[in-house]
Design brief:
The structure holds 2 protein chains of 2 kinds. By secondary structure, chain A is an alpha/beta fold. Chain A has 8 helices and 10 strands. Chain B has a single domain, classed as MetI-like (MetI-like fold, Orthogonal Bundle).
Chain lengths: 253, 266
């Protein structure tokens, strides 16, 4: 079994003193794997991710990285945002280099690193474009490149492909899998799409709604070694999507 | 059939249309009204309204007067200092109100009160405090122009997307860096709008201030010309003031359009 890189222990979040967003979430995230957090909207999955990112302080419980408690954001975790969170006045290159700039890396060095990742996410030739000149898919590639440049071990993705159209989403999902074969990252991925979770993840954490707590953890164990296109045709894939849907159905109603 | 229709519409296009001329060129509209002014002036119906051509000569005389240039210099000086202070103080105050709810609670009622208050009424009260000199006019300019900078900056700051701030925190930016690198640039379109509106208000402030004091600058000149019935000069001065305001506001709008890509980009 893989090492556990990140752990949440009994994490709970209470807003405004009375609204319970999360309750008793204890979760192990294995190193180098992709963990998907899946659940109906409003179940607190983004809240859980932000707790892990250190952007929201949990009301109870702790987040541990390699068995050490962490408080606040840190260079070991980089976030990819649902709405991309790109600076509209900055070019692709400047946006991608932002994380390194915040860390005080020299201009020459951060541009060199950024250009490498811009190429890796397939944005070569768009370095000097502004976000409003890019499609949704390209904007998210920029967001992904920005998260990769800081070279953190853990990549946190908050519904990263929900704001792009279906075709682009599939392309981005495929590209993410390809990229993760090169980059050795631990990924925690929030999604409301069962297909996306089963397609991408090694571990699917299903949250029940209000207050959010873990209802089930599923290990897809899908063979991703072969052709990426074939994953969706595997009987195991289809079976799992059905299975998860039947267990989630009750929370949706 | 079609051909004859086209021919018809062509001929009607060629026909002189007064309305269209007024619509197409503001220049012709100006000429038209100048003509009416000249006519009324020449008829001598109103002593207060001399013919426009006479004002043209008065305009040349005006430019030779050292009193005019003194007033002009004073206006430029008080306008510049007042507007500069409004922007330099207004933006930081707006930023502070935008990022701190407590500051916002303390200041917002006052800012909103002064934004809509008739500031002109306060000028007589300023005179004993600041004296009949530059300082009173500068204070008037500030009172006219600072509130809109504060309000617009504050609105811009509060509307910055949460995700941008979270992004900054995620990549380890300090609070300062988040404000300077993310929040202020993101609020720039609103800040620029605030500055433009404050320029308009400062132009009003600098003129109104001088006129209410009525002893210094253009206000003093207006007062002198009116009391000696130098109507040509009076009108020439009014035209100068109008053209000046129009030019300044036009320049600022030009500047704003150059920065407008920010707004489009969001």
């Amino acid at each position: 079994m893989h090492d556990i890189i990140l752990k949440t222990e009994d994490v709970g979040v209470i807003y405004d003193g009375s609204i319970v967003a999360l309750e008793n979430v204890s979760l192990n995230v294995p190193t180098g794997r992709l963990t998907a957090i899946l659940g109906p909207s409003g179940c607190g999955k983004t809240t859980l991710l932000k707790v892990i990112a250190g952007l929201i302080e949990p009301s109870t419980g702790t987040v541990k990285i390699r068995d050490k408690e962490t408080i606040g954001p840190g260079p070991d975790r980089a976030l990819v945002f649902q709405d991309f969170a790109l600076l509209p006045w900055a070019t692709v290159l400047q946006n991608v280099a932002f994380g390194l700039r915040a860390q005080g890396v020299s201009k020459r060095e951060r541009e060199k690193t950024s250009l490498h990742y811009i190429k890796e996410v397939g944005l070569s030739g768009f370095e000097d474009k502004y976000p409003h000149q890019l499609s949704g898919g390209m904007r998210q590639r920029t967001g992904l490149a920005r998260a990769l440049t800081v070279n953190s071990e853990i990549l946190l993705m908050d519904e990263p492909f929900s704001a792009v159209d279906e075709q682009m989403r599939r392309k981005l999902q495929e590209d993410l899998l390809k990229l993760l074969k090169i980059e050795n990252k631990t990924v925690i991925f929030v999604t409301h799409s069962i297909e996306e979770a089963v397609y991408l993840a090694d571990q699917v954490v299903i949250l029940s709604g209000r207050p959010g707590s873990i209802s089930e953890i599923v290990y897809p164990e899908i063979n991703r070694l072969g052709e990426i296109d074939l994953i969706r045709r595997q009987p195991r894939y289809i079976e799992l999507v059905d299975e998860i849907w039947s267990s989630l159905k009750s929370y949706v109603e | 059939m079609l051909n004859s229709d086209m021919a018809k519409s062509k001929s009607s296009n060629r026909k002189f249309s007064f309305k269209r001329l007024m619509r197409t060129s503001p220049f012709w509209s100006l000429i038209f009204w100048a003509g009416i002014w000249e006519f009324i002036g020449q008829m001598g119906w109103m002593t207060l309204l001399p013919p426009l051509s006479g004002i043209w000569f008065a305009f040349a005389e005006l430019l030779e007067q050292s009193a005019f240039w003194d007033a002009f210099a004073m206006t430029a000086r008080t306008f510049g200092i007042g507007l500069g202070l409004s922007i330099l103080v207004g933006i930081p105050v707006g930023v502070l109100m935008g990022i701190s709810t407590r500051t916002d609670k303390i200041l917002s009622i006052w800012v909103n009160l002064f934004l809509s208050a008739p500031i002109t009424a306060v000028i007589p009260a300023l005179m004993p405090i600041f004296g009949i000199a530059d300082a009173t006019v500068i204070a008037t300019v500030i009172l006219f122009s600072i509130w809109v900078v504060i309000i617009d900056t504050q609105a811009g700051i509060t509307h910055v997307k949460d995700s941008l701030v979270e992004m900054g925190r995620n990549f380890g930016c300090s609070r300062w860096k988040i404000i300077i690198w993310i929040i202020i640039p993101a609020a720039m379109p609103e800040i620029i709008t605030g500055v433009r509106l404050s320029v308009v208000r400062a132009v009003k402030g600098v003129i109104v201030g001088q006129i209410v004091i009525a002893l210094i600058g253009f206000g003093g000149l207006f007062n002198t010309y009116l009391s000696y019935f130098l109507m040509e000069r009076f009108w020439a001065l009014i035209i100068v003031v109008f053209v000046m305001s129009f030019t300044i506001i036009g320049l600022v709008e030009l500047l704003e359009r150059r920065i407008a890509f920010y707004a489009r980009a969001r």
